[in-house]
Amino acid sequence: MEKFVISGGKPLRGEVEISGAKNAAVAIIPATLLVEGECILENIPDIKDVNLMFDMLEALGAKVERLSSTSVKIDATKLDTYIAKKELASRMRASYYFIGALLGRFRKANVALPGGCNFGIRPIDQHQKGFEAMKCKVEIKNGCVEVEGENLQAANVYFDIVSVGATINVMLAAVLAPGTTILENAAKEPHIVDVANFLNSMGASIKGAGTDTIKIKGVEKLHGGSYEVIPDQIEAGTYMFAAAATRGNVLIKNVVTKHLEAITSKFEEMGVEIQEGDGEIRVNAENAELSKIKVKTLPYPGFPTDLQPPMVALLTTVKGTSIVTESVWDSRFQYVGELQKFGANITVNGRVAVVEGNMENLSCAEVRATDLRAGAAMLIVALATKGESTVSNIIYIDRGYANIEQKLTKLGADIKRIDD
Ligand code: EPZ
Questions:
Q1: What is the rounded radius of gyration, in angstroms, for the C-alpha atoms of the chain?
Q2: Ligand 1 center to residue 88 CA distance, Å?
Q3: Active site residue 117
Q4: What's phi and psi for 8, nearest 5 deg?
Q5: End-to-end alpha-carbon separation of the chain, Å?
Q6: Which residues lie closer than 8 Å to 298 by C-beta, 6 or more apart?
Q7: Could you please report the per-residue DSSP string of 84-95?
Q8: Whole-model pTM over 0.90
Q9: Residue 315 CB partners (closer than 8 Å, separation 6+)
Q10: Mutation pick for ligand 1 pocket among 48, 164, 232 (CB with most ligand atoms within 8 Å)
């Protein structure tokens, strides 16, 4: 088991290049199942979740050829089965995108119930609602989602809650379904727009992605082509938090500044200096006296839930009482016990965390990553805190952050990956 050993207390300085968006890539890779011909995907992040997606494609019979660490050629013209490999599917949450993609392709799908980060109940009832509206029969048998969609057809779907996964999954099923599917109360995250742009570039007809109403006119088939995945909003945000927590000065490159507005506006409120350029953001917190804040997570364009743990990490270094409300997930403060090992004063009551921040109360600690973004939060506190800390169970961090120790080292961090 590998762990990170961090000698913290040094401001991060320099430049960091952001990789392609994990949550776009893990949807676009299964979406290639709908394409006849070769797809070349560029700016794919080199992370564990993406590699698992490739393994799933190959297990279905698709050809996957890595062209470089960030580009891949996929040809799913000939597939052997509509049944996704159970051991692979059950290992990650995003494997649910194989349901929509296989359904579109074969009019049936069999995919194990998704695994992934655990922070409360993660139902898929809204995905099911969409497929059923499209005249499919959905059953859960032996831990697998089985969908029969012989009569798959367009439908009007009104989602009861805003769900990234359900929006993309039903979009995937609708691309090759006869008629025009209308998704209402759809999620608006940048990766939803990216998946729609990928599908449109391969011949689909999707309008309205990025708004709460998406219209998908079914087409007969999709053709091959090349597509570049957008930069990762959450990875960029994570480095912004690491820069601010260490009171550093970092230029974050290869970003879409618009996607980061919820973070930059909070940073400005706290007193972190932000300079936006073309595809880059400078975060300067050198010698800054940051102020406490209140923040609430919301679907895009609100403050992203995936940056809630990094935000709490930053607030442990900021004097005063800050309040963080989680409104997307039921129990996404489970990691707080680990941050308390650094001496952080955080009290959680349901979906609200009260952080009594003070850098001087923090001391190095040995902690264990409890999920991907919680792992990032632990790294941030370790980087900000003087002394040698260790973060174990980093398999979670590797699921979503490409070359993290190399990127942090380039910023002046003292971080080593150790095999225990
Ligand atoms: C995506 O998960 C992301 N994962 C998550 O990021 C992210 O936290 C989440 O969206 C919210 O932004 C991927 O894109 C692979 P949802 P997803 O469906 O699609 C409830 C990360 O760290 N819900 O938008 O699974 C659900 O319980 C990961 O990169 C239902 O009730 O999230 C939650 O409270 C972690 N029924 C809320 O909706 C459903 O059928 C939002 O979930 C589906 C969801």
A1: 21
A2: 19
A3: yes
A4: -95, -175
A5: 5
A6: 327, 328
A7: --HHHHTT-GGG
A8: yes
A9: 292, 293, 322, 324, 355, 357
A10: 164
**CA 309 – CA 336 distance, rounded (Å):** 9
Tokens, residue 395: 């398999």
Task: Classify residue 361 as exposed, middle or buried by CB count within 10 Å of its CB (0-12, 13-18, 19+).
Answer: middle
Output the CA 123–ligand 1 centroid distance in Å. 9
Q: Which helix (H) or strand (E) holds 2?
A: strand 2-8
| 3-class secondary-structure state, position 198 | helix
The closest alpha carbon to 245, from 304, 324, 315, belongs to 315
One digit per residue, pLDDT tens: the chain, 420 residues?
A: 899 999 999 999 999 999 999 999 999 999 999 999 999 999 999 999 999 999 999 999 999 999 999 999 999 999 989 999 999 998 888 999 999 999 999 999 999 987 655 666 678 999 999 999 999 999 999 889 999 999 999 999 999 999 999 999 999 999 999 999 999 999 999 999 999 999 999 999 999 999 999 999 999 999 999 999 999 999 999 999 999 999 999 999 999 999 999 999 999 999 999 999 999 999 999 989 999 999 999 999 999 999 999 999 999 999 999 999 999 999 999 999 999 999 999 999 999 999 999 999 999 999 999 999 999 999 999 999 999 999 999 999 999 999 999 999 999 999 999 998
- The string over 164-178, giving b where at least 16 C-beta atoms fall within 10 Å of a residue's C-beta and e elsewhere, is bbbbbbbbbbbbbbe
Ordered DSSP codes for 343-398: T-EEEEETTEEEEEE-GGG----EEE--SHHHHHHHHHHHHHSSEEEEEE-THHHH
Calculate the dihedral angle through the C-alpha atoms of 385, 388, 392, 398, rounding to the nearest 10 degrees. Answer: 70
If you search the block for the tokens 């676009």, which residue do you land on?
Answer: 28
Tell me, using a 6 A CB cutoff, whether residue 161 lines ligand 1.
yes
Q: Dihedrals φ, ψ of 312, to 5°?
A: -60, -40
Residue 100 CA to ligand 1 centre (angstroms): 16
Determine the Cα–Cα distance for residues 228 and 46; give it in Å rounded to an integer: 14
Q: List the catalytic residue out of 117, 136, 144, 364.
A: 117
Q: Which of 135, 121, 120, 127 is nearest to 160 (CA)?
A: 127
By CB neighbour count within 10 A (0-12 exposed, 13-18 middle, 19+ buried), where does 377 fall? buried
Q: Which of 122, 140, 168 to mutate to test the pocket of ligand 1 (most atoms within 8 A of CB)?
A: 122
